[in-house]
Amino acid sequence: MMRNKSIRFKLTLWFSLVLILIVGLTFFAIRVTSGMVLRGTIRDYLISTVEENVNQIKYTETEKDPKANIYIPYKEGYLEVDTDFMDVVNDVHTALYTADGAMLYGENPLSKETEAIPFTESYTWHMKIQNVRYDLYDRKLNITLPDSDTIWIRGIVPETKSAGQLKEITRISLILLPILIALAVLSGYLLADRMLSPIRKIEVTAEQISRGDDLKRRIDVGKNQDEVGRLAKVFNRMLDRLEGSFESERQFTSDASHELRTPTSVILAQCEYTLEKERSVPEYEEALRVVEKQGKRMNALIGDMLDYTRMDQGTKRYPFERADLSQIVWETAEQMKMIGTKGITLQTKVEPNLEISGNRMLLSRMVQNLISNAYRYGKENGTILVALQKVEDKIILSVKDDGIGIAKEEQEKIFDRFYRSDASRSIQGTGLGLSMVDKIAKLHDAAVKVESEPGKGSTFFVIF
Ligand code: ADP
Prior knowledge:
The protein contains nine helices and 16 strands. By secondary structure, it is α+β, with helices and mostly antiparallel strands. It folds into four domains: 107 residues, Beta-Lactamase, CATH 3.30.450; 56 residues, no CATH class; 58 residues, Signal transduction histidine kinase, dimerisation/phosphotransfer (DHp) domain (Helix Hairpins, Orthogonal Bundle), CATH 1.10.287; 145 residues, Histidine kinase-like ATPase, C-terminal domain (Heat Shock Protein 90). Strands 4, 5, 6, 7, 8 and 9 form a six-stranded antiparallel β-sheet that branches. Strands 11-13-14-16-15 form a five-stranded mixed β-sheet, with helices on one face. Strand 4 and strand 5 form a beta hairpin. Helix 3 packs parallel to helix 4 and helix 8 runs antiparallel to helix 9. The protein binds adenosine-5'-diphosphate (ADP). The site of adenosine-5'-diphosphate has 22 residues, from helix 8 and helix 9.
């Protein structure tokens, strides 16, 4: 059931539960300690009252000053009790006793109940009478009496006093704490609400995107640098990427259709023209040759397009392993030598045992595309040099030709899909070869560069 609730609700709930637990424990601790403190205070008060009263009693043989003191007949003389003697003060009752427990003076509301308790010097008792706790304190008077008698003073105080104060503390706590908890929960809820509001924004944006197909929408991140702000940023980056790849997908489809349209139109036009009337055999042959040429072109285009799109699946389709780049370059160059055209000589200068982590098939395809370009755009009876060498911590592959070269302003564009320079229109090609080289290089964390001068030749570098 909890799973369906909002984070805001869960946060507030947990927060409140923890808070209530903490407050409850604190309240409990306060009650216990304040109870202990109060009890201690009352006991101290009892002891100090009794101790003070001790000094108010003397033994005399005569009634010296009957106005200022109270005289209690005792044996041949009197016990002189100063009027400062506090028999009842602040619930503390004090009384004088003979050693065998007869009360001489003072107050004790519980004389019956405490009768049986023997006098013990300087010791506090506590006991429960009718559910009220009492503290009891006895003290022997240190005055000299006839027959070396002893007289005791006993103080007693009920704990109702401390209980009353405790009740007050509890009462105030019970009113204040719920208000505090309610305030804390409310502010927690509002805080959670504020913190989570960017998440709601993400939700709304994502919802809008998935309902329509406006991939251009982005979440308003603002200056928010916290986790949610970062999440929104990541989300926006993801959208950038998605938009980019959708856009390039769309572009690819459009370019591809465009590229395929030319050969298709040529074939259709050729057929239409040839079928207009009866033709001679050489004319039919000529027509078929045109159709074959355009068919081949379409075939090459479709093949390259397939290969190119497959590369988007990256390392999933083309797993990486340790690959001996030297061997791959050398073998590919040797194979290409055999189908070499235009009387071109292909030379290789390959440093052995240069290994990288990569996919052999893709690497071989890359070398193949570069050499194939060098042959196609190379000059008759020219030379191609394929080199692989290690320079510092880099491995550099270069394919150099002495052909038509590439104009400066075109050197960047040739890596775009389907781009073909004007100079190369007469030469067969799909415009996908170098895009493939670029893509393979990127998969291998390598960079591709070109150096070229029109009419003199070009060198392509792949730097691993
Ligand atoms: P394609 O060769 O099939 O046209 P590429 O992507 O391989 O497609 O090359 C794109 C363009 O770059 C070519 O059309 C050509 O104009 C130019 N190009 C590539 N390699 C060379 C080269 N070695 N010499 C001169 N121009 C080149």
